[in-house]
Amino acid sequence: MKNIVFYIVASFASLLVxxxxxxxxxxxxxxxxxxxxxxxxxxxxxxxxxASVASIYSVYMVCLGFxxxxxxxxxxxxxxxxxxxxxLGLLSIAYGFLGKLTSIWEFYxxxxxxxxxxxxxxxxxxxxSLVSRWxxxxxxxxxxxxxxxxxxxxxxxxxxxxxSIDRFGWELSYRYISYVFILLLILSSLLPWKxxxxxxxxxxxxxxxxxxxxxxxxxxxxxxxxxWGFFFxxxxxxxxxxxxxxxxxxxxxxxGFSEVEAAFSFGIAGILNFAxxxxxxxxxxxYPRHLVATVxxxxxxxxxxxxxxxxxxxxNIFLVLFIIGFGLSAGARGPIITTLxxxxxxxxxxxxxxxxxxxxxxxxxxxxxxxxxxxxxLTGGYNFGFILCSIFTFFGALLFWVIPQIRYAxx
Length: 411
Hints:
Strand content: under 5%
Largest sheet: 2 strands, antiparallel
Strand order of the largest sheet: 1-2
Shape: globular
Number of helices: 20
CATH topology: Growth Hormone, Chain: A
């Protein structure tokens, strides 16, 4: 009887930790990814060209990438309380000041630097490490749910941001987002972090005094092919995905859809984004992961080609194909990588190692976002951007096949 009670309590605690990680990942990344909805209002209000506005998001993604490394190091050294307190504090400050800014360099500082660092401190890096301490069986599924918070965040924040902008303007909309982060900061300060840090009693990824044991440090991981395989998968895939995601609302308006229709379509893709990440995690627990990844890349290609054909025929059929392809595939490689890394690099350096690979995602996302904006300003269209995204999406898929440690990883 005592064992049954312990199992129920442990399972409930594990689910609460997973829910907390899902919530923080959703809101922090959702606020950042909703920048695509703010792109046109900012461009119109300040008379900035598309590349200039996109460069704000690029700074955000670079800082998110570098912040992922810092987030991992701080998590391994100081634990989750430090990460979530600092991260939510930075996000509260960043979004609280955005509505008062008047120059692009101020947006670089507050949204780009503070927003990027804050999101990295409370996003998938600490989530992966915490969830791997609380789940053993079905780890891939649990990690995919936590990782899918990024898609859920887009689902929540993109439509709400568009409605708020239409009703209150972009300045007040950013202030309201800051209120959410202030509330989360207060709630986070009340949590029993010592208990949360330990993980479940029978989990093989053990901790001592809240610190993970075993495994290797980041310095050793940097000498492995597996680490660099994950790094460049993140980088190449991010160029393809973020070259699309930041500009998709503006592009749909460009081909004839209304702003509300474009934001709503982006939000629907967010629904499928959440589902796609969860389904990918489930599939990766049962089938060869390089095959699961390949299917998701095929969906990404379908999304890119559908967008391109909308210039010829802005049919709802192509819009639906884009929503399905992009929604089910954007971010879907993340759960596969997080599961593999939790298994391969489990121990004292996991958060740092995962954070360092995410630096590749930050670099790739910034590159894709700013290049797509630059190519639009240069050519007046998106065709060269579509070609760029297609090439790097292919490279990302190829790495799952050519690196043995990733292709032949155990199921």
